[in-house]
Amino acid sequence: MTEVTRDSLQRRYADLVDAELLRRLHSDALTELAREVAAAEAESRGLALTKPEPPRGPAVPDEIDFAPDEFERNPYQPPRMASAAMPAARRPPARNRAWDIIWFLYAGGLGVLTVASQVSRISRGINDVALMTSVVVCIGCAGIAGWRLRRAWVHSLAWVAVLAVNLAVLGVYSKRSFTELAALGDTNASLVLGFGFAVSMSIHVPLIWGLLRYAFLSPSIWNRRAAPRAN
After folding, report:
1. pLDDT score of 109
2. Which helix (H) or strand (E) holds 8?
3. DSSP code string of 111-140
4. 3-class SS at 168?
5. What is the reported pLDDT for 54?
6. Which runs of consecutive H residues, i.e. helices, occur in 60-187?
7. What Cα–Cα distance (Å) separates residue 49 from each residue in 13, 54, 56, 146?
8. How many Å apart are CA 144 and CA 207, to the nearest integer?
9. Are 122 and 116 in contact (CB under 8 A)?
10. Is the whole-model pTM more than 0.70?
């Protein structure tokens, strides 16, 4: 085994490049003699003998205790990934403007059709029942517009009453139509009357559905109105 002497260490460290010489000098595996020889070689080359300190990040005070889910107040916590246990935040779905246009066209068309039908009856005399029916249907059309515009018009209970009256009108009309169909029997006139009844029902059913949504199934509209305004 070759004896390690000061001369042999000097020859070995003289052959090392600066980076390797400093790495060995800063390691903890050298003996006192080897460290002394390596330090002398580094000084002869004009190398700094102090070990560079690793870069430090911003100090975080120990007394600060951040909650695990408060990333906005804790810049030292990475954001968490969405998981099944902690679902990601959901955004409210965007409203479909096409449906608004369809409902506005429906409400406007039904209102115009109702008024035109009432005007055509004036020449035959004013029928109070038919007039009240037309008024209720037109008010229902206004409720459809309020629903699609997200406006809290009057009060939700008022639209509950409008819905109830429209249901009553539709029920009376259905009963009268079935009675007339039974009286006509199996004739061509009964087919025409039955077709007219089916068309009328298909026209008024969306009105009932829209008023139901406006009166009962749109709490965000009425809650927004009931919320106190900030001064």
Report:
1. 92
2. helix 6-14
3. HHHHHHHHHHHHTT---HHHHHHHHHHHHH
4. helix
5. 55
6. 97-122, 128-149, 156-184
7. 15, 15, 21, 82
8. 7
9. no
10. no
Which helix (H) or strand (E) segment is 20 a member of?
helix 18-26
Predicted confidence (pLDDT) per residue in 56-76, tens digit? 655 555 545 545 555 455 555
135 backbone φψ class: left, alpha, beta (φ>0; ψ -120 to 50):
alpha
Q: Which two tokens stand for residue 13?
A: 């460290």
Cβ neighbors of 36 (< 8 A, separation 6 or more) are none
How far apart CA 27 and CA 10 sit, in angstroms, is: 17
**Residue type for position 108:** G
Whole-Å CA distances, 196 to 127, 137, 157, 193, 199: 21, 18, 32, 5, 5
Q: Is 51 helix (H, G, I), strand (E, B) or coil?
A: coil
pLDDT of residue 138: 92
Nearest to 154 by CA among 134, 168, 140, 133: 140
The span from the CA of 136 to the CA of 170, in Å, is 11
Q: Report the C-alpha gap between 205 and 167 in whole angstroms.
A: 9
Rounded to an integer, what distance in angstroms lies between the CA atom of residue 198 and that of residue 217? 27
- pLDDT (tens digit, 9 = 90+) per residue, 13-40? 888 888 888 888 887 778 888 888 888 8
Nearest to 148 by CA among 93, 104, 206: 104
Rounded to an integer, what distance in angstroms lies between the CA atom of residue 150 and that of residue 137? 20
CA separation for the pair 96, 100 (Å, rounded) = 7
Instruction: State the Cα–Cα distance between residues 152 and 223, nearest whole angstrom.
Output: 9
